[in-house]
Amino acid sequence: MGGRPSSSLDKRQQQHLRGQVDTLLRNFLPCYREQLAASVLQQISRELGPREPAGCQLMRSKKLPRVREHRGPLTQLGGHPPRWQPIFCVLRGDGRLEWFSHREEYENGGHPLGSTTLTGYTVLTSQREYLHLLDTLCPVSSGEHTQEESDPLLEMPVNFPLFLQHPFRRHLCFSAATGEAQRAWRLALQGGIRLRGTVLQRSQAPAARAFLDAVRLYRQHQGHFGDDDVTLGSDAEVLTGVLMRKLLPALRAQTLPGLRGARRNRAWAWTELLDAVHAAVLAEASAGLRAFQPEKDELLAVLEKTIRPDVDQILRQRERLAGRLRVEVQRPLESCLHGKVDTQLSLVTQKLLSTMEAVLSAVQTLLAQGMDRLSRHLRGSSSGTQLRKEVYSFGEMPWDPELMQTCYREAERSQRRLRQLVVPFGFFGTRSLMFGAQDLAQQLMADAVATFLQLADQCLTTALDCTQAAQQLEKVRGRVLKELLEFEGDVLAVGSPALTVKGIYKDIVQGVLLQMIDGELKKALGANDMSCTLDGCSEAPWDQTGIDEKAEAQRGTRPGQPGSGTEVQPLCPLPPPRTFCS
């Protein structure tokens, strides 16, 4: 498209960006070091503190989060001048998208024409919506006269488009051959985007939790107290996003007036410039974090050695300080919250609860359908090979984007409802919440599937005929579904401790908020219906005994009871031992 500036940056521009990243790291890393200490203390306190009896007994799936690899032919808009060209696309299991000139090049191990990580992208399947987006990137000033130029996107209407849009990167424009292929690619790409986006949120490593808290504190020091989706992505991608948001106003002011040509051509050129800046910042941020890695590893080791022997004393000191601070802030804090939060809390609680209830209900329904399908095959199939295929398909349910879409769709609907939180709370993190709900659905499905397969493998023996075996599966089915129902009351338990005075202040505020939230949850759910109690969330996240065990409670399975010991010749071949092991 016309109006295209050089996508490469000159030395002066590169040096300027390097200086910007150096400044960011110089101000950010002290926050990170501080939060590493807080996170290590949290980890040790959790390990040594008393644990509540786990109410939900689903075993934890050992399979790592991933995307089912997806590949197939597409056409791509690219080149200068741009044109639609046939390519062969591959979405890797780690959420990386690659495209090749043809299938044979991929199969022969050739290098891709291009590739990208999907962090931060959004998939659009409407050409009109995408063109409107381009129009908003370079709005026409009052009195400006623009000439109409030919536009490949308009000259060749796309029947089944897949537009990948990113706020700071070059847009990717693909097209599928059929509506079915478009849908399959859309679901696969959305799964890859979510997988790449929530890598830090899913991690239980102290360094990941410390990094997220450090980003929050750093942004507060910069005057940003709202909540948005900046923490989606890897550590380097998150810092890149933070800096790009800071650089964007100046880039707009310096660049947009100099772009020439039709508005959409200028918009395309603008995204290419942003892509070059983003790539340069990401490279510098990655290098800076790699340079910090040895120091971080050493610091974590030192903190482990120094905190663990004195953890009880540290927690007692922390609680004494928290007590003094609580006396100072409790009354004005409660007054503020009653005036500004009470009026909205019931609405927020209902929105979050309705979202999670819908997601968990969808998971339960999908899981029940899968278990019923297995039971039917066990009753009616005489083929052990076919049954093993059904078991494999059942085990892959959490990673099947088409099947899981019924669960994910409920979270997508909630994103529109949660946008109502923007005005009263300045909350812009609806995508993070949606991804979190979808991650929860996938993890819960994976855990439930793993639990069912494990218990089924324990209770099915060659001594059972098909009817008896199906009856045993019915018992396992009921047990797993019961655990899912018990899980529902525990999904909103939260807590985030810290070691510093700032962190203690945050805990005090959060503790008062949690008391209020706990009351709303009990009213909404009904105190007698909360199988997994939320008591304990009403306190500040830590005291000297170490709180927040519930969020990390180990979940295991009770050993299944064997079936009838009577020797009965099977009426149809039963699967060999460990057929149902995931």
Explain what this protein looks like in three dimensions.
The protein has helices spanning 11-48, 103-107, 127-137, 152-155, 179-197, 199-202, 206-221, 235-255, 263-307, 311-340, 342-380, 384-395, 401-418, 422-425, 430-459, 466-487, 501-525, and strands at residues 70-78, 83-91, 96-100, 114-117, 122-124, 161-165, 172-175. With 582 residues, it is of the alpha+beta class. It has a 7-stranded antiparallel sheet, sandwiched between helices. α3 (127-137) crosses α9. It is globular and about 80 Å long. The protein starts with 10 loop residues before the first helix and ends in a 57-residue tail after the last helix. 36% of the residues are buried. Residues 1-6, 491-501 and 527-577 have low confidence and may be disordered. Residues 68-196 form the PH domain. Belongs to the Niban family. InterPro entries: Niban-like, Niban_1/2/3_dom, PH-like_dom_sf, PH_domain. Residues 572-582 have a biased composition (Pro residues).
Could you tell me the strand content as a percent range? 5-15%
Q: Summarize the helix and strand pattern as letters.
A: HEEEHEEHHEEHHHHHHHHHHHHH
Q: What are the segments in which pLDDT stays under 50 over at least 5 consecutive residues?
A: 1-6, 491-501, 527-577
Count up the helices.
17
Largest sheet: 7 strands, antiparallel
Strand order of the largest sheet: 4-3-2-1-7-6-5
Strand count: 7
Morphology: globular
Distance between the termini: 51 Å
The structure class reads alpha+beta
Radius of gyration: 27 Å
Helix content: 55-70%
The mean pLDDT is 78
